[in-house]
Amino acid sequence: MGGDEGLVVRKIRHGTVIDHIPAGRALRVLRLLGATLGGGRRIAIVINAESRKLGRKDIVKIEGLEPRVEDLDRIALVAPTATVNIVRDYRVVVKRKVEPPAEVRGILRCANPTCITRKPGEPVTPRFRLVSRDPLEYQCVYCGSILGEREIVEQLGGPAPL
Ligand SMILES: [Zn+2]
User: Fold this and answer.
1) Which of 47, 50, 60, 154 could bridge 18 with an S-S bond, Cβ 3.0-4.6 Å?
2) Does residue 27 belong to any structural domain of this protein?
3) Cα–ligand 1 centroid distance for 117 (angstroms)
4) Where are the alpha helices (DSSP H) in the chain?
5) Is 162 domain-assigned?
């Protein structure tokens, strides 16, 4: 455990520490959680912290937020290696690895422009099945197109924020 990891994990009273985020993706994770952050929350971000597992990693600490299951699923899509620590009264009460969901509905967009899910006015919700965890790959249920990790990260996190 490096010094900066201790610093980030210990100081929070209630909230969430998202650790082992691939280096450079902390702001994408935050952006994905943006809808639930609300105003005035205190947030700490460590970018390029040292990690024995990953070499370099990012850490996000959000005071007063406990993510919902659907938020965790989305974090897994941009940060499949992330671990989520829920903290109450300075103690980690939940520690879990995020899991890329077996199926994703509606969040991702198929890369194939002729896919039925991209027809204008077509009410078909995009659906993808997990076909690989490392590297992360999802397959469109309708046309079979593969979405790679890089495309997924770009779709869900927007353009590189830094
Ligand atoms: Zn498709």
Assistant:
1) 60
2) yes
3) 6
4) 3-10, 26-37, 69-78, 149-157
5) no
pLDDT digits (tens, 9 = 90+) for 45-69: 899 999 888 899 999 999 888 887 7
Confidence of residue 142 (pLDDT cuts 50, 70, 90): very high
The total number of structural domains in the chain stands at 2
Residue 112 CA to ligand 1 center (angstroms) comes to 6
For residue 4, the CA-to-ligand 1 centroid distance in Å is 43
- Name which of 40, 43, 79 is nearest 62 in CA terms: 43
Dist. CA 44–CA 17, nearest whole Å:
9
Distance 77 CA to ligand 1 centre (A): 18
To the nearest whole number, what is the mean pLDDT of the chain? 84
Q: Tell if the pTM clears 0.90, that is, is over it.
A: no
